[in-house]
Amino acid sequence: MNAVTQSASKTCSLCSGKGYIQLLLGGSETCPSCGGTGKADRSFSSR
């Protein structure tokens, strides 16, 4: 079983700390979750 862990630096979970996401049809886009910083600015709770 694979477990996903977040590092202590709190990287963005959507872009994995890269600051951008790859688009399916080619190219890339600034991550909408972190705004390109690569850091998790907001905390989301899953209920």
TrEMBL record:
Protein name: YuiA family protein
Domain of life (superkingdom): Bacteria
Alphabetical list of InterPro entries matching this protein: DUF5351, HSP_DnaJ_Cys-rich_dom_sf
Protein source organism: Bacillus atrophaeus (strain 1942)
Lineage: Bacteria, Bacillati, Bacillota, Bacilli, Bacillales
Gene3D superfamilies registered for this protein in UniProt: 6.20.20.10
